[in-house]
């Protein structure tokens, strides 16, 4: 058997999501012996992380060149199911650590420093055949190693329980009032508006509508809006909004994983609710069945890169792993739409930079304004909140970057094949 160490790197699109789409196929290439967490190269202040990487050890009867070819085939197979606008791209490094007998093996010399540091995290028991890799790791400059950051818990994502908003208390106080519509929300809505061709009379189903923040924007454009959510707590707040009565939004308490209103609808929207959906064949069949031929579905969500780079990850170390487990990545949603028979899949990135008063961000965090905060242990939440208060004690504002994506597709018209 041959033991190979491999590295995967991505710089484009939803880079951590790109890596995960390939990582799940590694057992098809060889027996997976070890897998590192995702690592990334720490960017300069104010910049985005430029490269993400992961390392693994595989046992296989195939030569390194064959495994490299197999891995490239996996990457190409994933890319074929992801639209060009998602900017999917993954590079492959392979190091052959086969023991002796005078056989030539591939050196670690050309392996990316990012992958070498990721490899170092899984070489827990030194072996003679690891010498080449370890020599290269020791030779890395200290500043270069320090600039590479591990994202804990991302090697194998653990299932996460969905937040139940009927159990967290007053939805107005604990959600609606601490998440007012922001300029970022309106920018995101503008992107969805374009994706679905919002116009007067358009029949729109807003799934996971919550307190109706985006349903009211849809209705303000004179669309005929139906909002559904499984939380009676959230819908009570939505129905109390005077704008709902004026626009005649029809709010229904319904679990979208079980059923949806019959429609038909010209468009179906998911504003930050896809993480609550069970994305199996029944779900996609239900969507197709509720859309008119040529109708549009649009998911407004976060790429996995956002969870790594969000300001909150600096203080709450579990956030990235929790939200990567909750939210499907951009390439995953694209692939599912492709596999489920939708056409004209498109991805539009929304990147928003803002200055937030430090006191406002701390107060909203203390109120657990993001659903993820309800999934952290009490110890981690309190420790992270205290660290945030200390870090921002002398800061007037906090520079933040919010990354989102709108993934849209059409139900095939009857004439399409």
Topology overview:
Elements: E1 2-10, H1 15-23, E2 31-35, E3 38-41, E4 52-60, H2 64-80, E5 91-96, H3 113-120, H4 131-139, H5 142-146, E6 148-151, H6 171-176, H7 183-196, E7 203-207, H8 213-220, E8 224-229, H9 232-240, H10 242-247, E9 250-253, E10 265-271, H11 281-290, E11 291-301, H12 304-309, H13 319-326, H14 330-339, E12 342-357, H15 358-366, H16 378-391, E13 397-411
Parallel strand pairs: 7-8, 7-10, 8-9, 10-11
Antiparallel strand pairs: 1-4, 1-5, 2-4, 3-4, 3-6, 11-13, 12-13
Helix pairs in contact: 3-4
Give the tally of β-strands: 13
In helices, the fraction of residues equals 25-40%
Number of helices: 16
- CATH architectural name of the largest domain: 3-Layer(aba) Sandwich
Calculate the mean pLDDT score and round it: 89
Quick summary of this structure?
This protein is an alpha/beta fold and 417 residues long. The protein has helices at 15-23, 64-80, 113-120, 131-139, 142-146, 171-176, 183-196, 213-220, 232-240, 242-247, 281-290, 304-309, 319-326, 330-339, 358-366, 378-391; strands at residues 2-10, 31-35, 38-41, 52-60, 91-96, 148-151, 203-207, 224-229, 250-253, 265-271, 291-301, 342-357, 397-411. Helix 3 packs across helix 4.
How would you explain this protein's 3D organization?
With 417 residues, this protein is of the alpha/beta class. The chain has two domains: 2-151, 2-Layer Sandwich (Alpha-Beta Plaits); 171-411, Rossmann fold. It has helices spanning 15-23, 64-80, 113-120, 131-139, 142-146, 171-176, 183-196, 213-220, 232-240, 242-247, 281-290, 304-309, 319-326, 330-339, 358-366, 378-391; strands at residues 2-10, 31-35, 38-41, 52-60, 91-96, 148-151, 203-207, 224-229, 250-253, 265-271, 291-301, 342-357, 397-411. The protein has a seven-stranded mixed sheet. Helix 8 (213-220) links the parallel strand 7 and strand 8. Helix 3 (113-120) packs across helix 4 (131-139). 42% of the residues are buried.
